[in-house]
Amino acid sequence: PFRSVGSFCCRGRDDNDSIIPSRWMTSPPRGSSVEALGLPAEVSAVVPSSEAPWEEASSRREKRSARRSQASVAEEAAETDEVREVRPEEDLEAALRASSEEHEQAIRDEAERLERALELSRECEAERRRDLDLRAQTDEEALALALELSRRSDPAEVERRELEAALESSRRETGRVDAKLDDDALLLEAALRRSLDDGGAPPPGLASHAPRHRPAPRLLTPRHIVDDDRSQLELALHLSEQVESLERVLDEEEDAETLRFALAASEADDSSR
User: Residue 70: pLDDT above 60?
Assistant: First the structure.
């Protein structure tokens, strides 16, 4: 039942013809005794009472096992540390790549968003400009219509039209009177010439004229009165046109100033909105 670990010396044989060793070189199992092993009582005399040799051997084995375990643990720890040293670098590179890709994608998305916003802003600006142009054109048309209505309803304009109508009527009447006066003058000149040729007295309407040897003066006709009236009408019309022109210039300046203020207020309102 013992495992031999070396040679030993015999002191003889017992009654059962068993070898009695003089020095034990084996280590029986823990908790065993000489009697439990079935050895004769004489053996107990040479077997030490203490189990120190077996305990020392077991302790040495345990120490060797512990050293091997520690070495194995150290090797595993070293391998784990190497893996840990390698893996963080790989993980860091992967994380950096992922972060770089995410950053680039975010930059691309932001650039696309800015481009869309810029395009939308340009469209809004173009629409606003078209709206302003249309509004300015509408305001100009409304202003022109208002000016035309103002001119038509202006008393000076009404008076000017009346003067123009009166002048035109006077011109037509003057034309008719001139034609009649020309005819009358021709008749009078013909009568005067016949009377002078006959050596008689001049007609009743020409009694105050000069003698025969002096040329007959120009006959006074109503044309002078008509010409004076026409001159006065033309002068009044000219003055009325000048007054109207000045009033029109002043009105246009006031309307332009009002339009500028309105456009500035509209632009300020659009910008504030």
Answer: yes
Alpha helices in 38-154 (DSSP H): 43-46, 52-153
As a whole number of angstroms, the distance between CA 115 and CA 3 comes to 91
At 209 the three-state DSSP class reads coil
User: What is the distance between the alpha carbons of residues 22 and 9, in angstroms, rounded to a whole number?
Assistant: 6
pLDDT of residue 147 exceeding 60? yes
Beta-carbon neighbour count of residue 271 at 10 Å?
A: 8
The C-alpha atoms of residue 273 and residue 267 are separated, in whole angstroms, by: 10
Q: Which residues pair with 19 in a beta bridge?
A: 13
pTM of this structure? 0.25
- Residue 64, judged by CB atoms within 10 A of its CB (0-12, 13-18, 19+), counts as exposed
Per DSSP bridges, beta strands 10-13 and 19-21 are antiparallel
Sort 199 into a burial class: Cβ within 10 Å, 0-12 / 13-18 / 19+.
Answer: exposed
Question: In this predicted model, what pLDDT tens digit does every residue of 87-105 receive, in sequence order?
Answer: 567 777 888 888 888 889 9
- Does the structure show a pLDDT above 50 at 69? yes
